[in-house]
């Protein structure tokens, strides 16, 4: 049996809060309390939960943007939090991230070509000509034109900016893309275009998503598995159709009941 | 007489790219105690429409047409007279409860402020009434929290405080602009139930703006679908949901991922993107993106076609589309 693409074991993250009294103990918030899951290559996992449940902490730890209090994140068999800085930088080609806010996550003073090629630049292995070629390729994959390369982010709509962010994530040909609420800032019709695109890329390049979302329908659309996070723990996990049909945990049921139904009362 | 009657309202805005007609001749009316939803995507004119009801448009905006609120004409009304209506007879709940509340004032002072301003309450009277309001909107242990500041509350509780403020003067009309978009789905349900409960108990009218069709279905009895500054479809929520007569309404419904749908299916998308207000086509705003576009769509604005049930649709190709759906 081959090792899974991503294996997260007993992940714990505590954050220290500001002291309440000068000599008192430092209060802590337990953002994650022992989370384990794995993602097989080519499959996608959705993580749902409400604000404060710890879902974005999971994204940060998997992206090695933050260090866990304890536990490990293994990607392709290597423990990301045990790598040296140089090794981690090289390993980043295999996992990339798409952020929620397409306005805040693109540098307004850089051209699209520089924004999209930046992960390649960080890898420092490709020449200028190849970079340009790969950038055009990545933009084509997300449905943008090669002559968009020399434009700036403000010339694009929200949906197009999110495509640029996805192109940036794709350019290193990663195995895993961590997407934190990738469509929640977009209008319904644009959201559908971006979700379809993410689905196509999954089939075309075999990329896996770790999709963080509060929207159960979005997760249902894109993921093979879904994990429900509540108070820093995974309370329930399974295939979306099954989980949403026969939820076992009371919190999952509360979450499902709260989704407004489409039949007018 | 209807509480609110909007007739052929046009709103022009000065944008960086030149003058734009953000609202292009919309009409609707709202009876006392009735609930109305407005659904549409960014830039469709839904927020600008309600801002005009409150007299909160930018100074450079031009407004023509008529807005009659309880018999009084609001278009062209002076700022002083408008102040007597805003926050008093029309209450507003905003999307972002953190920015709608003032961080340096206690919640008792903020909830009581409209009462002191419009009703001449003393500080003590306003505080007493603020307590009753905060209890009504479900702030636990409200008496002890009167002197707390907004940052000491969670997002859902802040929205409850915002609702208490909007209710303070017992308005005839409550406007809620995406009141639950910033909240978790479980909290959203509680807040919508609170708004519905209060509207029913006080016999107020409600205008709810939302991009979420589920929220609209749940909360309001009538709805408008807006696109490119026009109302493309309007009617009882039940009828609009059942028939989805306008091609844009159909596109909006089809684009939404559905919980429990089988995996691997694709979402129907609307080709192209929302036109900029500055260069809206002269005819139907949806022409070009609509799969049923013919030449006449591009040149003339479609008049409203009346369907049974007080349901109206602005589309000249309704019969052809219906025939296609049957075939």
Descriptive overview:
The complex is a heterodimer of chains A (265) and B (327). By secondary structure, chain A is of the alpha/beta class. Chain A contains nine helices and ten strands. A six-stranded mixed sheet of chain A has the order 6-7-8-3-9-10, with helices on both faces. Chain A has a four-stranded antiparallel sheet with strand order 2-1-4-5, with helices on one face. The mean pLDDT of chain A is 90. Chain B contains 13 helices and twelve strands. In chain B, a hairpin with a 2-residue loop joins strand 9 and strand 10. Classes of the chains: A alpha/beta (265), B alpha/beta (327). At the A-B interface, helix 5, helix 6, helix 7, helix 8 and helix 9 of A face helix 8, helix 9 and helix 10 of B.
Explain briefly what this protein structure is.
The complex is a heterodimer of chains A (265) and B (327). With 265 residues, chain A is α/β, with parallel strands linked by helices.
């Amino acid at each position: 049996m081959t090792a899974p693409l991503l294996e997260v074991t007993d992940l714990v993250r505590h954050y220290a809060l500001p002291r309440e009294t000068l000599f008192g103990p430092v209060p802590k918030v337990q953002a994650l309390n022992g989370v384990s899951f794995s993602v097989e290559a080519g499959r996608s996992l959705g993580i749902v939960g409400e604000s404060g449940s710890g879902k974005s902490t999971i994204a940060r730890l998997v992206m090695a943007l933050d260090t866990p209090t304890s536990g490990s994140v293994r990607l392709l068999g290597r423990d990301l939090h045990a790598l040296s800085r140089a090794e981690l930088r090289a390993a980043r080609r295999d996992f990339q991230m798409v952020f929620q806010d397409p306005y805040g996550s693109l540098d307004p003073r850089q051209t699209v070509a520089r924004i999209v090629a930046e992960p390649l630049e960080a890898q420092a292995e490709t020449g200028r000509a190849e970079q340009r070629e790969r950038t055009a390729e990545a933009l084509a994959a997300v449905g943008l034109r090669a002559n968009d390369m020399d434009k700036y982010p403000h010339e694009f709509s929200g949906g197009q900016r999110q495509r640029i962010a996805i192109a940036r994530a794709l350019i290193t040909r990663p195995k895993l893309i961590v997407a934190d609420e990738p469509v929640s800032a977009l209008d319904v019709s644009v959201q559908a275009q971006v979700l379809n695109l993410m689905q196509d890329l999954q089939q075309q390049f075999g990329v896996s998503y770790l999709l963080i979302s509060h929207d159960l329908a979005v997760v249902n659309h894109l993921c093979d598995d879904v994990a429900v996070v509540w108070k820093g723990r995974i309370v329930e996990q399974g295939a979306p159709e099954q989980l949403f049909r026969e939820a076992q945990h009371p919190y999952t049921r509360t979450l499902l009941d709260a989704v407004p139904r489409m039949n007018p009362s | 007489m209807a509480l609110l009657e909007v007739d052929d309202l046009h709103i022009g805005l000065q944008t960086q790219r030149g003058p734009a007609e953000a609202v292009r001749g919309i009409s609707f009316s709202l009876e006392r105690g009735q609930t109305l939803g407005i659904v549409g995507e960014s830039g469709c004119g839904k927020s600008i429409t309600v801002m005009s009801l409150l007299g909160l448009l930018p100074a450079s905006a031009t407004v023509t047409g008529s807005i009659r609120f309880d018999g009084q004409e609001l278009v062209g009304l002076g700022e002083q007279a408008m102040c007597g209506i805003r926050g008093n007879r029309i209450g507003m709940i905003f999307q972002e409860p953190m920015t709608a509340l003032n961080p340096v004032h206690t919640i008792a002072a903020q909830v009581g402020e409209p009462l002191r301003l419009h009703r001449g309450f003393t500080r003590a009277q306003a505080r007493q009434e603020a307590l009753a309001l905060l209890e009504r909107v479900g702030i636990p242990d409200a008496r002890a929290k009167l002197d707390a500041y907004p940052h000491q509350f969670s997002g859902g509780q802040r929205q409850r405080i915002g609702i208490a403020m909007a209710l303070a003067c017992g308005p005839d009309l409550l406007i809620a602009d995406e009141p639950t978009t910033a909240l978790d789905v479980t909290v959203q349900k509680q807040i919508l139930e609170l708004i519905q409960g209060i509207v029913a108990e006080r016999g107020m009218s409600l205008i709810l703006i939302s991009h979420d069709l589920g929220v609209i279905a749940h909360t309001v009895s009538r709805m408008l679908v807006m696109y490119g500054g026009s109302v493309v479809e309007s009617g009882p929520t039940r009828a609009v949901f059942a028939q989805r007569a306008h091609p844009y309404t159909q596109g909006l419904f089809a684009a939404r991922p559905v919980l429990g749908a089988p995996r691997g299916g694709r979402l129907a998308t609307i080709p192209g993107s929302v036109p900029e207000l500055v260069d809206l086509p002269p005819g139907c705003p949806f022409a070009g993106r609509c799969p049923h576009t013919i030449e006449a769509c591009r040149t003339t604005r479609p008049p409203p076609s009346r369907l049974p049930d007080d349901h109206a649709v602005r589309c000249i190709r309704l019969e052809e589309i219906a025939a296609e759906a049957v075939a």
